Amino acid sequence: MICDVLKEEIDCIFMARQGCTFNGGHCEPVVEACDGCDHVADVDEDLYCRTSASPASKWNHGSCNYATHVVTEISNGNGKKINPLKASKRAGGRR
Ligand code: SF4
Prior knowledge:
Layout: E1 15-16, E2 19-20, E3 40-43, E4 46-49, H1 55-58, E5 74-75, E6 81-82, H2 84-93
The chain binds iron/sulfur cluster.
Iron/sulfur cluster (SF4) is lined by residues 30, 34, 37, 39-40, 49, 51-52, 55, 58, 64, 66-67.
C-alpha cells in the first residue's frame, strides 16, 4: 500500500488501511553507514531509506544488502577476483 506518513509515493509493506504498522508508526531515519546510497530519500529535511523501514538493522550483520555504494569483492585465493553470482551458479551445478 502507498505510504501516506513519511515516504509518500512509495509502496510499503508496512502500510495498511489503519496507517503505518511499523514499530512506532513510522520509518526510522538512515544511519551514517547509509551515506552515499542511492536509496536515501530526503523527506521534510530528514533522511529515510526507500527500501527499509529500519536502516540501522540492515547494518547489524555486515553491510546492507540493498546498499548501492558498497562494492563486494571476492577473491578465490589466487589473487583473481571472481563474480559472486557466477561462482554461486557454478557451485549450484555441482549439486
Ligand atoms: S538501502 Fe541500505 S544502505 Fe541504502 S539507505 Fe537503505 S538501509 Fe541504508
